[in-house]
Design brief:
single chain, 7 helices
C-alpha cells in the first residue's frame, strides 16, 4: 500500500469513527444551545452573565443557530459557558465512507458499462444481463481501488 493510500485510509477511519459516534444525531427543533441551556436549567440571563454577553445576545445566538447562521466560535464560547464543548462533524449519509465510495463507483461503472453495452447491441453483440451486472461490479471495484481523477465527476 502506498503512503498516499495509507494516509487516505487514516482519513477514512477518522470519518467512520465520527459517523459511529454522531451519525444518528439529529438537531433538536429548538437547536442545541436552547436544548442544552434548558436541560441544565440555566436561564438566558444567567447564561449571558456566564458568557459575558447580553441576554439579547443569547436569544440572538439561539435564533441564529436555528436559522443556520451562527459561527463555530460562538457555539464554542456558549458551550464552554455551560460547562460543555461544541462538537461538529461531517459524516456520510449512507453509512460509512466505503459505502459512499462504492455508491459513486457503482453509478459511474453502471453508466460506462451500459453505454458500451448499448453500442454493442447496435452491432448485435450485446452481453447477457448477468454478464453486464458482473462487469459493472468488477469495474466499480476497480474504480474504488484506483480512483481515477474523474472519479467524483457526475457519472
Amino acid at each position: 500500500m502506498s503512503v498516499k493510500e495509507t494516509v487516505r485510509q487514516q482519513y477514512i477511519r477518522t470519518v467512520d469513527k465520527a459517523t459511529q459516534q454522531v451519525g444518528g444525531l439529529k438537531l433538536p427543533h429548538e437547536g442545541w444551545l436552547t436544548t442544552m441551556r434548558k436541560a441544565l436549567g440555566i436561564s438566558a440571563p444567567q447564561l449571558a452573565r456566564r458568557a459575558g454577553v447580553t441576554k439579547a445576545a443569547i436569544y440572538q445566538a439561539e435564533n441564529k443557530e436555528r436559522e443556520g447562521g451562527i459561527t463555530i466560535r460562538q457555539m464554542q464560547k456558549l458551550a464552554r459557558s455551560m460547562g460543555g464543548h461544541f462538537v461538529y462533524a461531517l459524516v456520510p449519509d449512507d453509512g460509512d465512507v466505503s459505502a459512499r465510495l462504492y455508491g459513486q463507483a457503482r453509478a459511474k461503472a453502471e453508466n460506462i458499462v451500459r453505454r458500451a453495452s448499448s453500442h454493442m447491441a447496435l452491432e448485435k453483440q450485446s452481453l447477457p444481463d448477468q454478464q453486464v451486472t458482473q462487469e459493472i461490479e468488477q469495474l466499480a471495484n476497480r474504480l474504488v481501488r484506483d480512483m481515477p481523477p474523474d472519479f467524483w465527476d457526475e457519472p
